[in-house]
Amino acid sequence: MTSKRSELLLVIAGLVLLLVLPHILYPVFVMKALIAGLFACAFNLMLGYGGLLSFGHAAFFGTAAYAMAHSTKLWGWPFEAGLLLGVAAAAAVGVVMGVLAIRRQGIYFAMITLALSQMLYFLYLQTPFTHGEDGIQSVPRGKALGFIDLSNGLNMYYTLLVVVLAGFWLIWRTVHSPFGQVLKAIRDNEPRATSLGYNVDRYKLLAFILSAALAGLAGALNATVFQLASLNDVTWQHSGEVILMTLLGGVGTILGPVIGGALVVTLQNYLAASGLPVDVVIGLFFIACVLLFRRGLVGEVIAWNERRKGS
Amino acid sequence: MSYQALMAQLAIGVSNGAFYAMLSLGLAVIFGMLNVVNFAHGAVFMLGAFVALFLKLQLGLGYYASLILVPIIVGAFGVLADLALLKRLRGLDPLYGLLLTFGMTLVLEGIFRYFYGSAGVPYSAPEGLVGAVDLGFMIMPLYRFWVIVASAVVCFGTWYAIERTRLGAYLRAATENATLTQSFGINVPVLLTLTYGLGVALAGFAGVLAAPIYSVNPLMGSNLIIVVFAVVVIGGMGSILGAIVSGFALGILEGFTKVFYPEASNIVVFVVMAIVLLVKPAGLFGRAT
Questions:
Q1: Interface of B with A in 41-100 (CB under 8 A)
Q2: Would you call A148 helix, strand, or coil by DSSP?
Q3: Which of A109, A149, A286, B52 is the most exposed place for a label (fewest CB within 10 A)?
Q4: Of B16, B25, B11, B9, residue with least CA distance to B209
Q5: Which residue in A has a C-alpha nearest to residue B84's C-alpha?
Q6: In this structure, are strands B139-141 and A143-144 parallel, antiparallel, or unpaired?
Q7: Which of B270, B272, B279 to mutate against chain A (most A CBs within 10 Å)?
Q8: Are A115 and B273 inside 8 Å of each other by CB?
């Protein structure tokens, strides 16, 4: 009971913080962190709850970004329609990649998703609608629901907050649903889940598509906020970044990826200003995470809390 | 399409395949023993090319000296990396090995990018390997021909060492059952570290071979390594011979695609991977896992 109450308090405190934050920090920065958090959470659905490391999540993020940018800029679609198209496009890519990748497990799954997303990168490099190295620039932000002018920074922030929170809520619901329980069972012991009569591949594929769609949501929002969809969104480095965010925050926790996302974005911001090589520092963080705290920040806190309760 | 142009693309294809074969061979050897997918393989390939460049600029050492020295230097780097980092992950989920080596890749590439940008530095082939050679059925750039011969020798040598020598037998035994092998008095931990060093040295050797063809640049490895991952998925990681054969075969296929449908030459290996996954998920030479 008390833990339920403290959880509720935590959620309320978090919401209040998110409402106030754009008045304290630069709104675009907070939006960037929120998008990263959503992206990492979507990725974590696959790694933390499905036990499958995808090395190709940038493909979904980038595909949705292109769909959003193209539909709003060239077809004049409204914000919501672009968002839906982006999510649908990412899910469609997720279906194709998922069908192929879930045929193998573990390390092969990672290599296959990496290879397929690289293939998509080459396709986007060559197809004319992405405008190659330039990307789709000056994407209009448009109006949410037809009357909220998103070119205003705070309007954009609160609209984005609503969409991102809806995404978090969906992830939370998924993890705590019977579907999420089956997923965890598959992660912990796949043969047993099979022997209990679950169609393991179907569950994995569904989780993969959901994860892809939510990563797409993050990508589409990113295109609107930064008014740009570019090849950078689709690179393998970007897929690696989301892994680091999740690892840093805590694999298999709800809050971890959000915190990890915010940390990595902050780090990148700080490094970009300092002139230090960003990749090197990110790489060192990777190494440190893998060697020293594999549970991530939130995972360590949970483990510490349980040890304290136990003693 | 003229016969000569077709053959020229084929020659490029075979020599690209030679790089795929050498790199996927190293990946297969490392994965077989350490259960680690070495993401840093591409970065080490790049490191090999840069070390060759340094040896030339700083010490005035030529190409042939580099061909011998670079694998030793890069291999020693691999041994140190294994002792300092990878060794701590033995027995854990192989995903951590992938992530650690991914971090190593970012660090290595980041350092070279910091100092050299993304532009390449040219490295010329030795005088003896400039020009063309008449093979009877075609005329081929001599250096490409040399790459194919050298990599075929190295691949065969590695295969022979692992499948036909006593040390190779120890390696295979340790892959099969490390505990039992250790109980026979064989020092398996040292064997593992040396295997990583050897696999990495192979990538360093490939890097020197590649230096005169591609300009030496910080990103030369990372784009290659993802294609090599696809090659490894196609061939199945369990098999040394499979890695070599599929490496060469896919290089040739890529060469042909450049002739008949150039737009697809970047992605043909990935398309083949998708088809293989649909038809034979374990890979062409792989055992089901």
A1: 85, 88-89, 93-96, 98-100
A2: strand
A3: A149
A4: B16
A5: A291
A6: unpaired
A7: B270
A8: yes
Interchain proximity B270–A280, CB inside 8 Å: no
Altogether, the residues listed in chain B come to a count of: 289
Q: How many CA atoms lie within 13 A of B22 on its CB side?
A: 32
The predicted-structure confidence for A80-96, as pLDDT tens digits, reads as follows 999 999 999 999 999 99
Q: Which domains does chain B have, with CATH numbers?
A: 3-114+127-279 (1.10.3470)
Top-confidence residue, A165 or A148: A165
Q: Which of B220, B201, B188, B193 is nearest to B50 (CA)?
A: B220
Judged against a pLDDT cut of 90, whether residue B4 lies above it is answered with no
Unique residue bearing structure tokens 């020293």: A292
Nearest chain B Cα to A121, which residue?
B267
Of B96, B106, B274, Cβ closest to residue A279: B106
Which positions in chain A touch B113 (Cβ < 8 Å)? 277, 279
Query: In angstroms, rounded to a whole number, what is the distance separating the alpha carbons of residues A106 and A242?
Result: 18
Give which of A105, A204, A264, A280 to mutate to test B binding, by max B Cβ within 10 Å: A280
Is-contact A265 A36, C-beta < 8 A?
A: yes
Residue identified by tokens 């293939």 is A119
3-class DSSP assignment, residue B133: strand
Select from B114, B227, B233 the Cβ nearest to the Cβ of A280.
B114
Query: Rg for chain B (alpha carbons), in Å?
Result: 19
pTM: 0.92
Give B158's Cβ-side CA count (13 Å radius).
28
The answer to whether A243 faces chain B, any CB pair under 8 Å, is yes
- pLDDT per residue over A279-289, tens digit each? 899 999 999 99
Nearest Cα residue to B19 out of B212, B282, B256, B217:
B212
Residue A2 confidence (pLDDT): 55
Convert the pLDDT of each residue in A179-235 to its tens digit. 999 999 999 999 999 999 999 999 999 999 999 999 999 999 999 999 999 999 999
Closest Cα partner for B188 from B203, B201, B177, B178? B178
The question of ipTM being above 0.85 is answered as yes
Q: What is the pLDDT of residue B134?
A: 82
B interface test, pick of A204, A264, A290, A295 with most B CB neighbours within 10 Å: A290
